[in-house]
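Quarterly update from the structural biology core.
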Amino acid sequence: MTLLVLAIILIACKPDSPIISLDYITELENLTTDDSKKAYLENILIEDQEVRGDEDVEIMLNYGKDSQQYEDFINKMKMQDSINLLKIEKYFELYGYPTKALGDGAATAPWMVIHHTGGYELRDKHFDTIYNAYLHGNIDDGAISFYLRRMYRFKFGKLMDMESPFKAEDEINKYIREMGLEDRRDALRR
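Predicted structure, tokenized:
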């Protein structure tokens, strides 16, 4: 799957688009210290956020949402999201989910990249990793709620109603129950 995504990215690239080479694998394999892992992940988070700046609003206001300029901006964002996802998935393969000991930015980067990249299937694929990070305190209840909320919305095409007041844990458990993820959650809790 990862190689298929990479092939699509390389084929779809325009001459002025960023192209990812297989050097990212070597770069990841050479992350031998916590400081190098932290810097790598924080850089991914910066790249993820930079492409989501105010530029989209400016382009929309100046050229319109149906313009070539806006389409180019969206394609640029999707390209960066795909590159970041490749890097995060390889990071998971080599090192697992980063601990909070690496810093908030490093611990935020993986779930944020997944959050921005795809639909329900991608979130479902990484649910165990993300939920396990939550169980171990590497992401907080706000992050897991945010992740599950969007996952639910992709699956059902709507937001879930919650009766107020409620605790974050109640919301998390309701999302998990509604999406049929209880067995996976319970296996991770053991």
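Confidence is low (pLDDT under 50) at residues 1-18.
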